[in-house]
Amino acid sequence: MLRTLTLMIAGLAMTLLAACQPPAQLLVEKAYVKLSPVEGSPSVLYFTIKGGPSDTVLRSITSPNILRLEMHETVEENGMSMMKPITAVAVPTRGKVAFEPGGKHVMVWGFDNASRKAGKAEFVFSFSNGEKISVDAALKEMKPEDGMAHH
């Protein structure tokens, strides 16, 4: 009798532990901007989205500090690398979507002086599930050697 009870308590403890796992949360991480060294040409925003408890879609990115933003994806067509605008990005449950060099990225035009002084800009990510996530992205100067060297 006692042995059965002990097993039941152990089973219950395991169930409770499993329930204590933090729920998957929709997150935007590692956001940073590579500032264009050329006035008037776009800077680029990179970041990683971690999927939450259900599928959603990144619908838009806005910023109070910026004139204009466009989501783009680098695609290969006929051996040529081209940039295509994208309007929405699917974020699978507990998945990971990276906006990184050579893939998806956000072109950014016209930072205001306040964000340049602060060295960061605020971006608001809007998802199809109604969530809005505000993230501060560090502004990093693009160095001429960035094209070749590793950090």
Automatic annotation (TrEMBL):
Residues 1-18 form the signal peptide. InterPro entries: LpqE-like (IPR007410), Lxx211020-like (IPR058248), PCuAC_sf (IPR036182). Keywords: Signal. This is Copper(I)-binding protein. It comes from Blastomonas natatoria.
